[in-house]
Amino acid sequence: SQRVAEYAVLAAQAMDFNSKFITMMKIAGQLHDFGKIGVREHILTKEGRLNESEKRAMNEHPVIGAHILGKFKSFAEIVPGIRHHHEHFDGGGYPSGLKGDEIPMVGRIISVADAYDAMTTNRPYRVKLDHAAALSELNNNAGSQFDPKVVHAFIGALERKNHE
């Protein structure tokens, strides 16, 4: 979650959001998977593909996290992003099937940051991709899974950071 928060901040900065929004992105990135607290351990750590029942349980984590964090006024601005960080830009995601600008910007940014992190770290179910392959995947899915503006800003920011 710390890496996702760092990537989310990087993207928000590249998109010229103000410092309040950037702070919000850091917190949202750190808490984006908070709802996994309500997902059974054997599902979270399973090697290999999840079955349909396990997928449904895993797909509930954004709703669970938003429900719990929504009880605290201080998280009001990030809860929609946490709830919708698995929506797809073309409407094919979950939990609500939102598309395009219907998806809160916090969620669109976390989606890209989370995907990049997932692709570039080893997981119980697959080996990590290298940086170039992950960027290629983001580019290939810009406009379908991801907001193209966020992908463009994120990749540009990563490239600038890697050349510093």
Describe the structure.
The protein is mostly helical and 164 residues long. 55% of the residues lie in helices and 0% in strands. It is built from 9 helices and no strands. The protein has helices spanning 2-14, 19-31, 41-44, 52-58, 61-69, 79-83, 105-119, 131-140, 148-162. The longest helix is centred in the C-terminal third of the chain and has 15 residues, at 105-119. The model has no long low-confidence stretch (mean pLDDT 95).
Topology:
Blueprint: H1 2-14, H2 19-31, H3 41-44, H4 52-58, H5 61-69, H6 79-83, H7 105-119, H8 131-140, H9 148-162
Helix pairs in contact: 1-2, 1-7, 1-9, 2-7
List the main descriptive attributes of the protein structure presented here:
9 helices, globular, mainly alpha, 164 residues
Q: What is the residue-averaged pLDDT?
A: 95
Report the end-to-end length measured between terminal Cα atoms: 24 Å
Most strands sheet:
none
Strand content: under 5%
Order of helical and strand elements = HHHHHHHHH
Oligomeric grouping of the chains: single chain
User: What is the molecular shape?
Assistant: globular
Helix content: 55-70%
- Our count of helices gives 9
Q: What class, by secondary structure content?
A: mainly alpha
Based on CA atoms alone, the radius of gyration comes out at 15 Å
- How many β-strand stretches? 0
Unreliable stretches covering 5 or more consecutive residues: none
